[in-house]
């Protein structure tokens, strides 16, 4: 029988600590005392003094990303936006840590703070050189929640859970900023605010975020690092939220209320240009209107037009002349910018407390060790059947390391340049030393492409620079050989055997298809448009067409390779003139791998993604499985040698259903940086216990997910909090090489106490996770909700009792009937375990909270505060602020549950708009959308979506306590209503 605890008094506030819950429901910002300190007051005085010395033109010049020097005041040039997602990026060799999703998988905020501090040091390391693109304002961490594993930028976030995301992002930002309340090592920004988890049409799609989703799910992820004064502002997202572009979403009423410190908020790159009539969003007529709205919304810096500020300066000046802005609006933004620059030490002797840091910190021995530790703790053991892992190095005679990622490390768009590479093959070879033979094959085919009509072969150049691909007659040998890498859905890359370089498109001569040639000169697929992609399209006669499949197609139609008649150089053109090739297999990669597997004692197959190909910024995933060629390789190798371990190295959950059923051991890691191979060897051979845990639900199929554009986790049952189906791996999942026993959890002052014992024979690490579930509620509640966690390392037989912090406020949810947080009177289930799907101990708490009263619809009620809906979109009530509900179908409806109509409501009064011509209607129905009609109001066209009118209707029979539905017709926008 479970222990039942009755709790009639509030918990003590959760103990402070790296893994303590960020206060989601608290009203006061965490930093209020700091902001009122003598140092903060002195800083404000310095800012005001410098602001007073700037001319209006100088102030306007500071609003652009590239802020010019002002020599007369001793101000150097300043730039916002150094990329530092998992290391210093785009500025040469630097320590590369695991991708952000891998950092999250460590579940170790103390470690992540150290990583952030190291990255901050490396950003500072270039301060004396100040290369182009460098600056002390860093655009990291990314805190968008990973609610949909198909999102192209999944690698950039930490978790699908707001609490875990808040903890990890706060730790990383604290490391970046230095943790000093008065000085900044760097000035990190969290991005991208708000609710952006789709790349498809990302500058045109609108995310519907109703109040509960915003308050309970979205806001905590962004709020955590800012309310802790670890981050210094936000970058707004490209998308719209509730019909309003994020670039002009009101930050003064949201983000700036989370702290008393000055924040410097910035737009995303080129986003201001989306707003006017000439852009994709067409939200304003002119750029002047748009830029004025941006500043009034609480942003301070325009990231647009690269290094050219002319358009921004002209638009702001026009806005001033037209009365859209006052100089005080400019002063507000510049005040925020100067505050950050002062705190960075720019105007202090020697550059402040961090001014001494030099370039020697970049890729230092200490940072290399930290990179190895982070990569090791990011590894997740998904499956381990029959003790397949760890591998026993002693006695191993021969190991085969196979697969397309066995001997390579890939960078991503926001990676730094790897200073060195320890591949999985290199890591395993080093670990085994001379005592064992390690063989390897990438398991990919080496092919030649022969023109079926002429007999000429496609050839590449030798040497590092390669050459333009062309058709050559005769027997060209190795220059005609290409390694064929499959990345799924038919997409392949070609690597020249002549020089080991990847083939990509280059505009060699300028203009038109004839000028676009292909060179074997790239280390890996890369670039914003990733021009190294092809598809080999099978034809009925057995030949193939070589179709260009890069991310950018300049020609308006599908284009194919063909030999230019004059010189045989391959150029692009329509399918009608494409060269037809026979594909000759020079080496069968699968058979080579199988032969090595048969001859090995143990096999490690390393498969996964290429970050520039398999989803990335601007490109969402459509297929959640492994590439077909990789799946086939695993099956063939496993058939040849059942002692096979599979390592999956990618940036997101993958539908490994066959592999989970058949492969003895599965290991997952993200692209983990320069020490990937060392970390994998540490885990595979048991030198470290696997301590990584999944930060997302791994679904069995993409069919378990709604459209990527559906943002309502509650209604569409997304993430571990609401998904009711069978999962492949649950949130928080990860195995150890030992076993753990949990004691019975009990409530103590400050949280929940539980004893954990290592019951195995090896030292191991467990991530103890605390979840809650509210058993009864007025509204649909999460199935589970992560409230705290603790990472423990225990020796065999060792027991530790830990207290997982839990406050009464953490049990609150957003009450839409009164627009405030509420802790309901209910029984709350307390669950501790090693994942959301592996609960080891339970107890219950009876909380003497509130009983939410029935709705009082006689008061003016915002339409967005509904309980259920169909056929509607959330839309912008006005351009500056407010959310209305727009009907998208002939009978759209909103349900307002448990309304107390008392002795009877006699009149509907609604504030509505209707841009389209003709009349619409709003109906009041009782009990259900098709329930009894109580009244109907006619809505005439207002000619504008932003012009509202008040309509009324007489009601009959609207009495007692019951659900009320508003049913309204397509084109009607409903802002508020009342039933009196």
UniProtKB/TrEMBL annotation:
<dbReference type="InterPro" id="IPR013783">
    <property type="entry name" value="Ig-like_fold"/>
</dbReference>
<dbReference type="InterPro" id="IPR008979">
    <property type="entry name" value="Galactose-bd-like_sf"/>
</dbReference>
<dbReference type="Pfam" id="PF14310">
    <property type="entry name" value="Fn3-like"/>
</dbReference>
<protein>
    <recommendedName>
        <fullName>Exo-alpha-(1-&gt;6)-L-arabinopyranosidase</fullName>
    </recommendedName>
</protein>
<dbReference type="Pfam" id="PF00933">
    <property type="entry name" value="Glyco_hydro_3"/>
</dbReference>
<dbReference type="GO" id="GO:0046556">
    <property type="term" value="F:alpha-L-arabinofuranosidase activity"/>
</dbReference>
<feature type="signal peptide">
    <location>
        <begin position="1"/>
        <end position="25"/>
    </location>
</feature>
<comment type="similarity">
    <text>Belongs to the glycosyl hydrolase 3 family.</text>
</comment>
<dbReference type="InterPro" id="IPR036962">
    <property type="entry name" value="Glyco_hydro_3_N_sf"/>
</dbReference>
<dbReference type="InterPro" id="IPR026891">
    <property type="entry name" value="Fn3-like"/>
</dbReference>
<dbReference type="GO" id="GO:0009044">
    <property type="term" value="F:xylan 1,4-beta-xylosidase activity"/>
</dbReference>
<keyword id="KW-0732">Signal</keyword>
<dbReference type="InterPro" id="IPR044993">
    <property type="entry name" value="BXL"/>
</dbReference>
<dbReference type="InterPro" id="IPR002772">
    <property type="entry name" value="Glyco_hydro_3_C"/>
</dbReference>
<dbReference type="GO" id="GO:0030246">
    <property type="term" value="F:carbohydrate binding"/>
</dbReference>
<dbReference type="InterPro" id="IPR036881">
    <property type="entry name" value="Glyco_hydro_3_C_sf"/>
</dbReference>
<dbReference type="InterPro" id="IPR006584">
    <property type="entry name" value="Cellulose-bd_IV"/>
</dbReference>
<dbReference type="InterPro" id="IPR005084">
    <property type="entry name" value="CBM6"/>
</dbReference>
<dbReference type="Pfam" id="PF01915">
    <property type="entry name" value="Glyco_hydro_3_C"/>
</dbReference>
<dbReference type="InterPro" id="IPR017853">
    <property type="entry name" value="GH"/>
</dbReference>
<dbReference type="InterPro" id="IPR001764">
    <property type="entry name" value="Glyco_hydro_3_N"/>
</dbReference>
<feature type="domain" description="CBM6">
    <location>
        <begin position="859"/>
        <end position="980"/>
    </location>
</feature>
<dbReference type="GO" id="GO:0031222">
    <property type="term" value="P:arabinan catabolic process"/>
</dbReference>
<dbReference type="GO" id="GO:0008422">
    <property type="term" value="F:beta-glucosidase activity"/>
</dbReference>
<dbReference type="GO" id="GO:0045493">
    <property type="term" value="P:xylan catabolic process"/>
</dbReference>
<dbReference type="Pfam" id="PF03422">
    <property type="entry name" value="CBM_6"/>
</dbReference>
<comment type="function">
    <text>Catalyzes the hydrolysis of a non-reducing terminal alpha-L-arabinopyranosidic linkage in ginsenoside Rb2 (alpha-L-arabinopyranosyl-(1-&gt;6)-alpha-D-glucopyranosyl) to release alpha-D-glucopyranosyl (Rd). It is not able to hydrolyze alpha-L-arabinofuranosyl-(1-&gt;6)-alpha-D-glucopyranosyl (Rc).</text>
</comment>
<keyword id="KW-0378">Hydrolase</keyword>
């Amino acid at each position: 029988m479970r222990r039942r605890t009755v709790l009639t008094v509030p918990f003590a506030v959760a103990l402070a600590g790296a893994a303590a819950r960020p206060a989601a429901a608290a009203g006061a910002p965490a930093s209020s005392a700091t902001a009122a300190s003598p140092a903060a007051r002195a800083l404000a005085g310095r800012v005001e003094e410098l602001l007073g010395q700037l001319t209006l033109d100088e102030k306007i010049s500071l609003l652009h990303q590239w802020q010019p020097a002002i020599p007369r005041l001793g101000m150097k040039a300043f730039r916002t936006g150094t990329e530092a997602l998992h290391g210093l990026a785009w500025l040469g060799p630097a320590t590369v840590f695991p991708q952000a999703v891998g950092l999250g998988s460590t579940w170790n905020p103390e470690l992540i703070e150290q990583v952030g501090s190291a990255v901050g040091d490396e950003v500072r390391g270039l301060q004396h050189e100040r290369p182009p693109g460098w600056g002390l304002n860093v655009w990291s961490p990314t805190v968008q929640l990973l609610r949909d594993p198909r999102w192209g930028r999944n690698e950039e976030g930490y978790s699908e859970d707001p609490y875990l995301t808040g903890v990890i992002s706060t730790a990383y930002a604290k490391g970046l900023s230095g943790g000093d309340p008065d000085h900044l090592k760097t000035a990190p920004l969290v991005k991208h605010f708000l609710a952006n988890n789709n790349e498809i049409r990302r500058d045109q799609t609108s995310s519907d975020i109703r109040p509960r989703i915003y308050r309970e799910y979205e806001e905590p992820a962004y709020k955590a690092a800012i309310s802790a004064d670890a981050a210094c502002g936000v970058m707004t997202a490209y998308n719209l939220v509730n019909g309003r572009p994020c670039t002009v979403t009101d930050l003064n009423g949201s983000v700036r209320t989370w702290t008393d410190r000055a924040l410097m908020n910035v737009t995303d790159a080129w986003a201001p240009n989306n707003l006017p009539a000439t852009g994709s969003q067409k939200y304003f007529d002119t750029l002047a209107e748009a830029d004025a709205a941006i500043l009034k919304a609480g942003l301070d810096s325009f990231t647009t037009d690269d290094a050219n500020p002319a358009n921004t300066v002209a638009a702001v000046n026009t806005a001033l002349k037209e009365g859209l802005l006052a100089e005080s609006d400019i002063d507000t933004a510049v005040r925020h910018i100067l505050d950050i620059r002062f705190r960075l030490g720019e105007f202090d002797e020697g550059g402040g407390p961090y001014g001494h840091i030099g370039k020697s910190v970049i890729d230092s021995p200490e940072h290399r060790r930290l990179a190895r530790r982070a990569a090791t703790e990011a590894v997740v053991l998904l499956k381990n059947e029959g003790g397949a892992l760890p591998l026993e190095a002693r006695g191993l005679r021969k190991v085969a390391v196979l697969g397309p990622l066995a001997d390579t490390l890939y960078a991503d768009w926001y990676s730094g340049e790897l200073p060195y590479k320890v591949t999985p093959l290199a890591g395993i070879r080093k670990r085994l030393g001379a005592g064992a033979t390690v063989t390897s094959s990438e398991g990919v085919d080496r092919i030649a492409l022969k023109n079926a009509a002429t007999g000429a072969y496609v050839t590449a150049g030798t040497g590092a620079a390669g050459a333009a691909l062309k058709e050559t007659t005769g027997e060209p040998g190795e220059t005609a050989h290409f390694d064929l890498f499959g990345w799924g859905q038919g997409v392949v890359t070609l690597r020249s055997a002549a020089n080991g370089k990847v083939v990509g498109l280059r505009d060699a001569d300028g203009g038109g298809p004839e000028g676009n040639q292909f060179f074997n000169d790239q280390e890996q697929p890369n670039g914003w448009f990733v021009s190294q992609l092809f598809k080999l399209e099978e034809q009925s006669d057995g030949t193939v067409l070589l179709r260009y499949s890069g991310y950018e197609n300049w020609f308006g139609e599908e284009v194919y390779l063909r030999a230019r008649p004059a010189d045989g150089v391959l150029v692009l053109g329509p399918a009608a003139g494409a060269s037809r090739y026979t594909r000759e297999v020079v080496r069968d990669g699968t058979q080579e791998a199988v032969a090595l597997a048969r001859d090995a004692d143990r096999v490690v197959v390393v498969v996964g993604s290429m970050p520039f190909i398999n989803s990335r910024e601007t490109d969402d995933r459509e297929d959640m499985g492994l590439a077909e060629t990789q799946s086939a390789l695993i099956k063939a190798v496993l058939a040849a040698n059942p002692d096979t371990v599979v390592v999956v190295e990618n940036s997101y959950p993958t539908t490994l259903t066959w592999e989970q059923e058949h492969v003895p051991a599965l290991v997952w890691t993200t692209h983990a940086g320069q020490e990937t191979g060392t970390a994998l060897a540490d885990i595979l051979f048991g030198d470290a216990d696997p301590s990584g845990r999944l930060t997302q639900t791994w679904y069995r199929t993409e069919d378990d997910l709604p459209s990527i554009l559906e943002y309502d986790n509650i209604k569409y049952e997304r993430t571990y909090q609401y998904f009711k189906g069978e999962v492949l791996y649950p949130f928080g999942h990860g195995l150890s090489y030992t076993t753990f026993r949990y004691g019975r959890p009990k409530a103590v002052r400050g949280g929940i106490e539980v004893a954990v014992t290592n019951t195995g024979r090896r030292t191991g690490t467990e991530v103890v996770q605390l979840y809650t579930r509210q058993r009864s509620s007025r509204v649909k509640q999460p199935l589970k909700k992560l409230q705290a966690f603790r990472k423990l390392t225990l020796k065999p037989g060792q027991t530790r009792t830990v207290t997982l912090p839990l406050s009464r406020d953490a049990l609150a949810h957003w009450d839409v009937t009164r627009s405030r947080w509420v802790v309901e009177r209910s029984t709350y289930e307390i669950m501790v375990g090693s994942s959301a799907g592996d609960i080891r101990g339970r107890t219950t708490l009876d909380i003497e909270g509130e009983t939410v009263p029935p709705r009082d619809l006689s008061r003016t009620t915002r339409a967005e505060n509904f309980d259920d809906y169909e056929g509607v979109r959330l839309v912008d009530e006005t351009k500056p602020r407010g959310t209305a509900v727009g009907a998208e179908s002939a009978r759209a409806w909103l349900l307002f549950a448990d309304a107390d109509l008392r002795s009877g409501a006699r009149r509907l009064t609604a504030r509505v708009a209707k841009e389209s011509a003709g009349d619409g209607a709003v109906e009041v129905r009782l009990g259900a959308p098709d329930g009894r009609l109580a009244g109907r109001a006619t809505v005439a066209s207002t000619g504008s979506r932003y012009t509202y009118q008040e309509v009324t209707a007489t009601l009959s029979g609207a009495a007692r306590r019951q659900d009320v539905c508003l049913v309204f017709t397509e084109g009607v926008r409903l802002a508020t209503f009342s039933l009196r």
